[in-house]
Amino acid sequence: MSKRNIAMAYCTDNEATVKAIEQSLQPSGYQFQLYPCSRDSIGVSLPEQLLEQPSPILLFISDNFLKSAQCMSRGLKLLQDKRQQILPVVIEGVAKDEQSGEWTKISTDFERVSDIIQYINYWQDRYLDLRRQKRQMKDFDENAFNAHLKIMREISSEAGEFLRVLRGMNFLHHAEFGANAYENFFKFTNDLASWPSFKSKYSPVEAGNLPQLEEEEEPPAGLSEIPGISALEERETSTPAEEAPLTVDLTADTPAGESSQPQDAEAENEEAETTEPAPESEAEQALPEEEFRDASDLYQAIREEEEEEEE
Q1: What is the CA radius of gyration of the chain?
Q2: Whole-angstrom Cα distance, residue 123 to residue 128?
Q3: Which residues pair with 8 in a beta bridge?
Q4: What is the pLDDT along the chain (311 residues), one digit of tens a residue?
Q5: Contact (CB, 8 A) for 188 and 110
Q6: Longest dimension (CA), the chain
Q7: Smallest Cα–Cα separation from 154: which of 230, 81, 243, 40?
Q8: d(CA 133, CA 283)
Q9: In this structure, how many other beta carbons lie within 10 angstroms of the beta carbon of residue 241?
Q10: What sign results for the dihedral spanned by CA atoms 147, 74, 39, 120?
Q11: Pick from 181, 277, 227, 261: which is nearest to 41 by CA?
Q12: pTM for this one?
């Protein structure tokens, strides 16, 4: 591992914030290799790229990151395999107001059970929506679509565990990371001896002084527009058979006020479809309620951790 090289991984929606941090750290003498990840990325996911490189990683976690398939695919494996080389930095997400056209900030929270549940809900909904789309699509590459569906299923299965592992790491919020002339950066690199020299030259760069990245649109429903779809057939051939996913049983554990689609209504909607569904692969034949029924243990473990912290 090269001590003077640092990987900076982030969702492109947050590029202004990350570029400001990079510029602020330039006097440190470190070389920063940027790993931007967008919804439109083609090829291997961001975590897969990071698994192949040897440098320490500044992993910038935002609401945008946690809702990007390219950022989240294989994310749990990244945290498990390179935990000691990663410093997660939690930054605000951004979104564009559809009416005013102005950019707004979105907090990134995953420290409470209710915060984690909202992301599990998000990925479950995306996976189930994709399943429904398949039944209505014609003249498409079914193998490639199934490969993409498998990736989405993996993310929906691992989102809760990803966030549980993440919150157990020594992550820092943006303000903490930049405090006292980025002292925590030099602690992360085990290079506090270089910090006084950096501090004497340090001049902070604000994200507001940099151009804001144009907002990306949500991935369209069409198969040809699915991010990375062209590379999925090759990946599918090398992916081992998947195990039953571990996710939260929302019908039993979702707190009051959290939204989830009633399973009876889901079944009625599917029966009401007039179009005969295309034959599904063996991996898809399980009903959604079967796919998501075995995660009460994860939910309970997260809640117990939270109660211990409050005590």
Answers
A1: 21
A2: 9
A3: 34, 58
A4: 445 999 999 999 999 999 999 999 999 999 999 999 987 656 789 999 999 999 999 999 999 999 999 999 999 999 999 999 999 999 999 998 888 888 899 999 999 999 999 999 999 999 999 888 877 777 777 788 888 889 999 999 999 999 999 999 999 999 999 999 999 999 999 999 999 999 999 999 987 644 444 444 444 434 444 444 444 334 444 444 444 333 333 333 434 444 434 444 444 444 444 444 444 444 444 444 444 444 445 555 665 666 666 66
A5: no
A6: 70
A7: 243
A8: 17
A9: 6
A10: positive
A11: 227
A12: 0.70
Alpha-carbon span 295 to 247, nearest angstrom:
4
Residues recorded for the chain:
311
- The 3-class SS string of the chain reads CCCCEEEEEEEHHHHHHHHHHHHHCHHHCCEEEEEEECCCCCCCCHHHHHHCCCCCEEEEECHHHHCCHHHHCCHHHHHHHCHHHEEEEECCEEEECCCCCCEEEECCCCCCHHHHHHHHHHHHHHHHHHHHHHHHCCCCCHHHHHHHHHHHHHHHHHHHHHHHHHHCCCCEEHHHHHHHHHHHHHHHCCCHHHHHHHHHHCCCCCHHHCCCCCCCCCCCCCHHHCCCHHHHHHHHHHCCCCCCCCCCCHHHHCCCCCCCCCHHHHHHHHHHCCCCCCCCCHHHCCCHHHHCCCCHHHHHHHHHHHHHHHC
Which residue matches tokens 């290079």? 191
Please give the Cα distance from 85 to 240 (Å, whole number): 27
**CB within 8 Å of 171: residues ≥ 6 apart:** 61, 87, 88, 89, 90
Three-point CA angle 80, 82, 86, nearest 5°: 110
Nearest partner of 155 among 187, 129, 120, judged by Cα: 120
CA 174 – CA 193 distance, rounded (Å): 23
User: CB–CB of 51/81 below 8 Å?
Assistant: yes
